[in-house]
Each structure stands twice: as structure tokens, then as C-alpha cells.
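Researcher: I'm preparing a figure for a lab meeting and need a structural model of a single chain. I don't have an experimental structure, so a prediction will have to do for now. The sequence is pasted below. Please return the structure as C-alpha cells so I can convert it later.
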Amino acid sequence: MATYNSLDECNRAIAALEALGLPVPQEILDQQAKFETEQEIIEDAIAEDIIGTSVEETEETINMKDEKSDENSSKKNSGSTKSKTKSIWRKILHFIILTIIFALIIVGAIWTYGAYIKIKERQETQELTETIFNNLYNSSPELAYNTALTLLSEEVLESNNIKLSTEQYKESALDKIKKLAEDGYDRAQYSLGMYYAGYRFEEKRYSHYSKDITSDSIEYDKAAYWWLQSANQGNPKAMSNIASSYLIGQGVAENPEKALYWYRKSIEKGGDAAALYLGDCFRDGLKVKIQKKVKDYWGYKWVDDYKVILEANIDSAIYYWNLADERGHPKAKDRLQKIYE
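Model: Understood. Here is the structure written out cell by cell.
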């Protein structure tokens, strides 16, 4: 009996026998059946192996997808958390900025309102002061002068627990004193002379004792002019001041004779400073430098000489210093003490 090695050989042999009309031996059919059975077994094994591999791959794919899904979910959750955190901080920052802006607006509004109230009060007070001064001027120059001098002399006025700064009225007050001086009021003329000589009423001293002295602020010629106007009306303080101006030639030409004249006139009116300074004149004596024409070998020439205006006399000096002390001049006692030391 022939032996076949594969199912194909069996099938060709069977096909050839059938084509010749010959019967197919049973042995060939048995081999065919055997090969078919083996092939089916192989195909089933192959099919099972493919299915198993597919299932494993599928499971791995599913697991990988699950892992990726979990990873993506974790990333999404992490990103969502970060986004929420950023959003919260952004809202907090916006709230802080809005709070600061609102606070600045409130502070600015309060400051603006306060400044407005101060300006309004200042304008109302200035208008009231101008009205009062004008009324005083029309009724009494003396009251007007006292009011203007007070505004010049005081930094703050206080009445009924209300404090009023006078800084804004000083220029206006000085203008009023100038007007009173021009109208012939002797006390205003004297004070205006003091101002031009550098006296600052709010400091109660001359500006050359202050750090902010400027030579432009002192006009001795104007000071002497107004003191002379006041002295001619009988003001003893102005008389003493114009006398000192003549004595040293400040604002006017030096003239010791006129100085002595006005010192004595002031003393007659009760002046204490004039008594003190006339005592100084008697202590030192007064003389003026003059040019004297003399003859020498070559002819005539001019030489310096001195003319005695007042002989030094310590008894007269003491007399006038005592008089100044009696009238309350603060420096008179010092003069007298130095004499007896």
C-alpha cells in the first residue's frame, strides 16, 4: 500500500482514481481522514493561540488605557487644583488692591474737605477782619492803629478758646499802618519808621538780631523820614530815635547839634531812652571833625580839627541816667553800676 506524506497528496491520488473511474482504496481514505483530523487539530491549536494572544494584548491595552486615564485624571485634578489656587490668590489680590484704592479715595476726600474748610474759614475771617478794621479806622484812628499793631506783633490771637493765626493779616496790617502814617497819625509814623529800620514786631526785636537778615529789608532813610514826621507831632519815642539818627548819621546827615536838640525835646515829653542816651553823650562828650585853615611857611592849608559840641561831664551823665532809671529804662542801672565799680 502506498503511503502519503500530506493531505494534498492523498487528495490528488483520490482525484486521479475518481477521474479514471476506479474505486478509491480504503487505506487512502483512512490516510485522508487522518490528515484532515491532524490539520483540524493544528488549526484549532493555532486559533486558540491567536485568541489567547489577542486577549492578553487586549487586556494589556485596556490596562494601559486605564493607567493613562488615571494619569490624565491625576493631571487634570492637579491642574484643576492649581487653577483653583491661582484663582483664589487672584481674587485676594484684587480685593487688596480695591481696598487700598478705596482707602486712598476716602483719605483724599477727607483731606480735600479739611483744606476746603480751612480756606473758607480763612477767607471769612479775613473778610470779617477787614470789615472790623475799616469800621475802626472810620471811627477812631487810634483803635485802628492798635488793631493793626496787634496783628503785626502777635503770632496767634486767642479769645473764647478760639485761636487765630495772624500770619495772613500781617501784610494787610502793615498797609493799614502806612495809610494811618500818611494820614498824619504820629504813632503809626513812629511804628512805620521802626519797620523800615528793621524792627520786626512779631519778634519784638530788630532784624539784624535774626538769622534771616537781608540788607534790602532795612531802609534807614525812610525810617528817619517817618520818625521826623512823628517827632514834629510831639511823639517822644520818635524824637529819641531821630536824635540817634542825627548822632550817628544813619538815614540823615550827621548832625550832633540836632541830636542834642531832639534828645532834650524827648526828655521834656517824658522819654526814658532819650535820657539814657543823653547821659551817654555827657559821659563821652561830643565833638565833630572839621577842616581848619592854618598858615605855614608855604602859605595856607587845610588841616583836620575837632569842634566840641558837648563837654564830657560825668555828673551830668549820672543825672540823666538816674532820670532814665526813674522812668523805667532797663539799661540805666547798668550804666550807673559801672560808674561806681
